[in-house]
Amino acid sequence: MEMIASALICSVLVLCLSHLCHPLSVDYYEKKCPKAEAAVTDSVKQAMASDNTVPAALLRMHFHDCFIRGCDASVLLNSTKNNAAEKVGPPNVSLHAFYVIDSAKKAVEELCPGVVSCADILALAARDAVALSGGPTWDVPKGRKDGRVSKATDTRQLPFPTFNFAQLHQSFSQRGLTVEDLVALSGGHTLGFAHCSSFEKRIHNFNSTHDVDPSMHPSFAANLQRVCPVNNKAKTAGTTMDTTPVKFDNAYYKLLGKGKGLFLSDAALMTDSKAKALVLKFAGSDEEFREAFVKSMIRMSGLGGGGGVEVRLDCKVVR
Ligand code: HEM
Ligand SMILES: *[C@@H]1O[C@H](CO)[C@@H](O)[C@H](O)[C@H]1NC(C)=O
Ligand SMILES: *[C@@H]1O[C@H](CO)[C@@H](O)[C@H](O)[C@H]1NC(C)=O
Ligand SMILES: *[C@@H]1O[C@H](CO)[C@@H](O)[C@H](O)[C@H]1NC(C)=O
User: Which of 48, 181, 232, 273 fits 296 for a cystine, CB–CB 3.0-4.6 Å?
Assistant: First the structure.
């Protein structure tokens, strides 16, 4: 035990010495690359103009990045001959729009070669995705470095849509995130789309006494059963995460309160008194949701404390 502890302390020291503990700062690129942020915003805007699924994809990509090995752009790496990357891990079904990060990186490399990390670009793109969808905006602390490791098997560390409250709580608190962070960040589900596989256990064969999860609103469940019939063969079938999937708003919380949360993990927020009170607060006030979301995004965006070891030149490959 003592050996493990001192090994841990040792590795933390080594990590700090190799510049891995540097704090993030809002003005990190102010001198190094003042036009970087605007270039990222332009790339996101341009991509959104022809594909309205882009913002949801970027927000989820950043979440997956931060929850595995900290926000170090591990989610962006391609597999190699000897390594299956996070991208090909099981929950990859809807991770897409990697091309947006590539075009932002290309624009930023033209301005300041080798300076802006892919992890920072992804954090900025996620912020832009929210802001350009009608959500709040905020200053993103920057200075992350890109990691060199990405493993498909690590995606098991992501929370599953079948998680109950205790499991969600554990997944977030392991990363130093609170119940308020959990509830506010789940509001990311105001954007985007989910495939049947992410929620079909709730609407068919739920358990031995109920075919449908009884916490679901009956007409909501019936609708989902139509979209996702038993033995549904269409792998692309699914539904939007809330009723306004390209608008960043608090509709997600309003629906949760009515038994119209899509995943078990969404509905689970109504099963804990503290979480439920927050859901109801955010359902009643878009302003309070926006404030809480910004606070929690900055916390999630800081996971890993700056992440990796290098600034990649191509976000898909290590240097
Ligand atoms: C609390 C635990 C969470 C679980 C269990 C979870 C799970 C999922 C699942 C299963 C999907 C649908 C995948 C599919 O069927 O294609 C999804 C979509 C999505 N998630 Fe989460 N998620 C969680 C938290 C978050 C957080 C913290 C964010 C961001 C702040 C987020 C943002 C999104 C977005 C934007 C989509 C839509 C993606 C798209 O349309 O491309 N999720 N999530
Ligand atoms: C990364 O993978 C994508 C999708 O398989 C492929 O189109 C692309 O060429 C790869 N890029 C690099 C640099 O390996
Ligand atoms: C998604 O993950 C599955 C299971 O690991 C894998 O077989 C599939 O190739 C992946 N899909 C993509 C697009 O990477
Ligand atoms: C099925 O789920 C419902 C709702 O969660 C629960 O009340 C019931 O006890 C469960 N039945 C079994 C057999 O687990």
Answer: 181
Query: What positions carry a catalytic annotation?
Result: 64
- Rg of the Cα atoms in the chain: 20
Please name the residue whose Cα sits nearest to atom 12 of ligand 3. Answer: 88
For residue 15, which of 78, 86, 72, 73 has the smallest C-alpha distance? 72
Residues 124 and 171 in one domain: no
**52 within some domain:** yes
Task: Tell me the pTM.
Answer: 0.93
| Dist CA 172 CA 59 (whole Å) | 17
Q: Please tell me the residue having the least CA distance from ligand 2 atom 3.
A: 78
Which CATH number characterizes residue 55's domain? 1.10.520.10
Q: Same domain for 220 and 152?
A: no
181 vs 169: CA distance, rounded Å: 10
Angle at 130 between CA 126 and CA 135, to 5 degrees: 155
Give the chain's domain count.
Answer: 2
Same domain, 184 and 149: no
Task: Give me the pLDDT at residue 18, please.
Answer: 40
pLDDT at 41: 98
How far, in Å, from the CA of 225 to the mean position of ligand 4?
19
Q: Output the pLDDT for position 232.
A: 82
- Which segments in the chain show pLDDT lower than 70? 1-22, 93
Q: What's the rounded Cα separation, in Å, for the pair 24 and 50?
A: 33
Find the 14 Cα to ligand 2 centroid distance in Å: 33
